[in-house]
Task: structure prediction
Amino acid sequence: MTVKRLNVLLLDQGRQSLPFLKALNKAGHRVTIVCNTKICEGFFSRYPVKRIIWPSYFKDRSGFEEKLFSYLKKFQPDITIAVGDITAEILSRNKKRIEQYTSVTVPEYDIFEKVTDKLLLMQYCMRENIPCPLTYDLNEKSISSMGSKLTFPVIIKPRKGIGAIGVQKIESHEELTESYKDLKDKYGEMLIQEYIPQEGGMQYQAEAFLDNESCMKACVVLKKPRFFPVTGGTSTANETIFEDEIVKTCRNLLEGLKWKGAADVDMILNPETGIIQVLEINPRVTAGIKIAFKAGVDFAELHLKLAMEQPIEYINNYKSGIYSRNLFMDILWYLFSNQKMKRETSPSFYKFFGRNVTYQTISVDDPLTGIGFFLNMSRKYLNIRNLMEKLGQN
Result:
């Protein structure tokens, strides 16, 4: 870690911020965290030196950006870090303006757009022979020909979006025709994609980091055995593994795109072909990035070295078998999963303790963050309407 004591502005309040707060604090840096509410993990953490409340970038992006530009101009922190999709997009889109006042760890916006537009990314993968599902633009002209290009069921999703929002499994051409307009009006431009069965197809993700020359310096591979909703959504449990083929795919993909900084590559094993295919890239660390820290890869240090233009050594010696859980959502998985899922999941749902077991928001040395997460998730999930919607998806 660099010796100089730095002032760091961290723009996200969620669980991915927690290992950054701890690592930066332990290294002697001063971290200010931005929250949109006091009821969140980051606000409850003991590690930031200051907590500030700004408008939510989900509900009032212009208000958030106004606060950001005003703060940067006045205080000029050494480094500003984004660990969320929207904040990373804001920093990339405004990179030249922002770098007058602070250093950032995001690529230029033309590169950023190629990754976050899911259609452009899949088209790149298909051109470069990087394994991915067959994917096409979906519009009024192309919709009639999709029956000849893809076999139903298919997946349709927004070209730009966060997580599983707007992702739909469509069983027939008739359903596609009936659903398309409403989905486009709600979520914007859509793409259509080959459906990869999740039954027998383990999902993976790779937490990668690239230096200023777009050379991949770290790639922590995870398998994702459980989700909520149980048919596919946010992963509730992860485990570090070694998988050379995933590392090779990520290197070819990210270095070819000239990416810089952190990238979370989501992948799935196609049970029909035995090939692990790229699904999407998130332009930041995953919400469960604590598992990488536990495995021995300090992503906070990587961000600082990139921002300060220091050399970054290649990291290939992380620990496998680290098991990380989002306990709140893992309990929801348990409540809505069937007996076969409970019996076959690995690592076991009942593995609560051990040297290699960690929790995304529960920490002995930062105990209040679990309360902040529970309160935040309770607002999101524990109401009848949301639970019924989740149940309906299962």
Q: What stands out?
A: Residues 166 and 198 are 18 Å apart (CA to CA). The radius of gyration is 21 Å. The first helix runs from residue 17 to 26.
